[in-house]
Amino acid sequence: MASSRGEFSSRLGFIMAAAGSAVGLGNIWGFPTQTASNGGAAFVLVYLVLAFCLAYPAFMAELLIGRYGQANAVTSLQKMSSRSWQKHFAFLVGFGGIICAALILSFYGIIAGWMMSYAIESAASLFGLNSVAEWVIGNSVERNLLFTIAFMVLTVFIIRKGVEDGIEKWSKRLMPMLIGLLVLLIIYVMTLDGAAEGLNAYLNPDIERLKDPSLIVSALGQAFFSLSLGTSVMVIYGSYIAKKENLVSLGAQVTLIDVSIAFLAGLLIIPAMYVAQAQGVAIFAEDGSLISGPGMVFDVLPKLFEDMGMIGTFVGLAFFILMSIAALTSSISMLEGPVSYTVERHNVPRAKATTLIGFVILCISVAIVANIETGLDFVATLSTQYGQPIIAMLCCIFVGWIWHRSSILKELKQGNDSVEHSLFWKIWPWYTKFICPVAIAAVFINSL
Predict the structure, then answer these.
(1) What is the domain-level CATH number for residue 211?
(2) Block means of pLDDT (10 residues each) for the chain, length 448 residues?
(3) How many C-beta neighbours within 10 Å does residue 28 have?
């Protein structure tokens, strides 16, 4: 069955695709913004601990569900179920994750379109096309629709190609570009006045802040959401992994890459904020809070690039290309969840299913654009603050309480014969059963 529905051709292919899904706008911009708002280095320290203590175990649960089921999220969860009520429960959880992924993509595509428009603004400025540059960053309905459509077309184009020729092929191309651009931008920003102060704020923790419960819960949420959990994405990606692969090490490698890129993003954004501050741009209010919050990427950073002169135009172009690539590596994973369900459960050809679902999600995006003031926040809150934590928590409950422990061990041993004697197996099953659901519930309650 795996061969007819496709699978990743190599370990590197899966790592790049899964890391690409995890490394999106939330990681490149969300993590540094959270860091700046929550004590700098203290937040980074807590985040790093929780990424491996909470996100990795939950990530492994979703990968295991997918590889065991070798199917879409709904079918995979139902294969774990032995009773009628469990199968109905499995449908609700699996389909809920698919709907969640579609909703996230509907607003994500709009924000990604803005990233593309700012990249084009920088390019237009280089060629003296000032009227074009001014229009593409104007907050008009026409501009929002144009770039949302353009981004969705790119996403649909990749997913139509399938697993190996679409997701894997483009992830292998985009992820190295993303990492390369990120490193080059970090090197450049570190040469500017104010960067050293930002670096100190990022790497020198205030130990007293570690006692702040809100910081801990915020870091917990960031670590959890950064790995695309609760959207059926990692279940479907897990289903494309060959049985011979060692899931324990694969999951650890993806988590490490995700955390590393988030850390690198902080090395870019936090010093860049202090560089902007050194140049007279207001970053923090009197109470120490961020003035612009998450929207600062479209506010403060363009001002910073503008103050750099001609070199700032090139830096701005590279930065927004980086953000667009990060968005695309995540969007293709979000679209794959609904597409795989439609292809496998309703026997619709992949090209047709991709185009149809892409169009439906685009229609939701258009409705959001038409009501941008309230629609964007509503859909984002519904999907990320409510949908994701609930679905991921239920996946952990499935693995911990419904799936038989012997079946889990058998699945893990297919790629690692000695896993039964490892530290992972001694800790992970009970950790997923008890700790993860409680910790995820804490994040959800905090979001309320």
Answers:
(1) 1.10.4160.10
(2) 57 77 71 79 87 86 92 93 93 94 94 93 90 90 95 92 78 82 88 90 82 78 75 86 89 86 85 84 71 67 78 86 84 91 93 96 96 90 83 91 92 91 93 89 73
(3) 27
Number of domains in the chain: 1
List the domain range (segments joined by +) for residue 159.
2-447
Q: Cβ neighbours of residue 434 under 8 Å, at least 6 residues apart?
A: 400
Residue 284's DSSP bridge partners are: 290
pTM of this structure: 0.85
Rounded Cα–Cα distance for residues 89 and 81 (Å)? 9
